[in-house]
Design brief:
- It is built from eleven helices and five strands, in the order αααααβββαβααβααα.
- It has two domains: about 5-80, no CATH class; about 120-270, Ribonuclease H-like superfamily/Ribonuclease H (Nucleotidyltransferase, domain 5, 2-Layer Sandwich), CATH 3.30.420.
- A five-stranded mixed sheet has the order 3-2-1-4-5, sandwiched between helices.
- It is of the alpha/beta class and about 280 residues long.
- Helix 6 runs parallel beside helix 8 (about 190-200).
- The protein has helices spanning about 5-15, 20-30, 35-50, 55-65, 70-80, 160-170, 185-190, 190-200, 215-230, 240-255, 265-270; strands spanning about 120-130, 130-140, 145-155, 180, 205.
- The protein starts with a helix and ends in a 10-residue tail after the last helix.
Length: about 280
């Protein structure tokens, strides 16, 4: 039986005109260039995040780039491209301890601040590189959760946190009346670090002993870094680690990664919108 005869029989059977059938056939055969473009962008941004970006993050990135798109469509595009985001594992926190009497917790979990350079937070984490542990210190401006300073070293000493503070102080234009909040690590309670704070006229605040929630924004930065970016096996060399982490902190995190606190805007772009309403801390 010829194809045309078979088509006539089927159209008659289902009471569908041949013109409607052929019109629908043409639409199915037409390539959806807009969808292909969006799928290509979703794949590109997903790869930029090293497989960490989910549908919510990808939707925010596309919207920031001027595309009107819903989360359901992003999920569909991810499915078409066989993209599955990495999910961070469970994170366990230590129990609350007593407060350091020498350096009080002036911040007291007041993480929402109204201006830049009002409160900076600092913390240290460890990174495996070149068959040994190295240490990363970061300074975060709470205003829009922007990373303003960092340092990387094989020694977790006071110089590490001083170098991160120095970078923040210079990059932010040597601001006045800043509060610096951290945990009670020996680096932050050291005389050298406290002298540097005094030189910059920065007021010091500290979490209660063993209480990660008192410095929750910094905990989130390190959790994102380790779950989204750092290879599970670490880095082959210190220079490789330093270069890659620098790119994540100062480029991807600050300039391109959507932040839920900023309603989907990266920290650097959010700083340019002073009237932006903040989300969760």
């Amino acid at each position: 039986m010829r194809e045309q005869e078979a088509t006539e029989i089927l159209c008659g059977l289902f009471d569908v005109s041949r013109s409607s059938y052929y019109d629908n056939l043409k639409r199915e055969q037409k390539i959806d260039t807009e969808r292909l473009t969006l799928r290509s962008l979703v794949t590109e941004y997903f790869n930029d995040s090293r497989g960490a970006a989910g549908s919510r993050t990808l939707q925010s990135i596309l919207q920031n780039e001027g595309y009107t798109i819903g989360r359901f469509k992003v999920r569909s595009l991810m499915s078409e491209a066989s993209l599955h985001s990495k999910q961070p594992g469970a994170h366990r926190y230590k129990k609350t301890g007593g407060e350091c009497l020498d350096i009080p917790n002036h911040l007291n979990r007041q993480f929402n601040v109204s201006t830049p350079n009002q409160v900076w937070c600092g913390d240290i984490t460890y990174v495996w590189a070149g068959n040994r542990w190295h240490y990363l210190a970061v300074v975060l401006d709470l205003y829009r959760r922007r990373i303003v300073g960092w340092a990387f070293s094989s020694n977790p000493d006071a110089e590490l946190v001083i170098n991160a503070l120095d970078m923040a102080y210079e990059q932010r234009g040597q601001p006045k009346k800043v509060m610096f909040h951290s945990d009670q690590g020996s680096q932050y309670t050291s005389r050298k670090f406290r002298q540097r704070l005094w030189r910059y006229r920065i007021r010091q605040s500290m979490s209660r002993r063993g209480n990660c929630w008192d410095n929750a924004p910094m905990e989130r930065v390190f959790r994102s870094l380790k779950s989204e970016w750092i290879p599970t096996t670490g880095y082959r060399a210190q220079n490789e680690a330093k270069r890659d982490i620098s790119y994540y902190l100062m480029d991807y995190y600050n300039l391109r990664r959507p932040h839920q606190f900023n309603n989907g805007l990266p920290p650097a772009k959010a700083e340019e919108q002073p009237n932006l309403l903040s989300g969760i801390s």
